[in-house]
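The following block was generated as part of the benchmark described in Methods. Ligand: zinc ion.
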Amino acid sequence: MVLSPRKAAKKAAKKATKKVAKKAAKQAAPVAAPAVRAPAAAPAPTGPDTVIPIPPTNTFNQGLSSASEATMLQIFGVPGQKTNDCSPATGAFKQRIVTRVNVGPFSVSGLDIAVQALKAAFDEAEEQIPNVISAVKNDGMLCVRHKRGNPNSFSNHSWGTAIDLFFGNAAVPQGVNKTYRGCLQLAPFFNKHGFYWGAGFSGKSVDSMHFELAEETIKSMTHRG
Ligand SMILES: [Zn+2]
């Protein structure tokens, strides 16, 4: 094998470096290890109330998409007024709203199938990540209003199929590409029970506190899709 001059030089340099390293190791060897170990650095915070970047969106929401307004209107009808803040539910879907149902960490009011799925997700998470369930807080489920970023469109909270969750003292606002670790830890359980995680929205719509019954779940649960 004939080495190019460049490769040969590289090889020689490597050899020389190795030699020097060996020599240094030999010289360093006789130094005794310190009797007292330096204290370990403080561990990185890992609790559910730690705020972390949202991981790549192909790592969650697999096979699930956000429920479109068209689908929601078609299946559940007009929920009420497209207001800025919560306004009364007036549509026929109102008969399917269940109120103050204990879902584990707290009680909620929302659409029957969404509250059932929410309880199932929390029950399963409680088995595996009880520290997350004991720390999770509810920032609202049923709330008839328009979308934060689009006054022409109903938020899925309007039908009580979405819930906002947070940890610590305040929710991570919409448009911020971060999440509480607790929301990330809950995401697999919510995905499994048919919820789409709002961390998958793009740009200013990204919303890591938001979980909603997915388009696919609503269609399969209502037999009308
Ligand atoms: Zn929300």
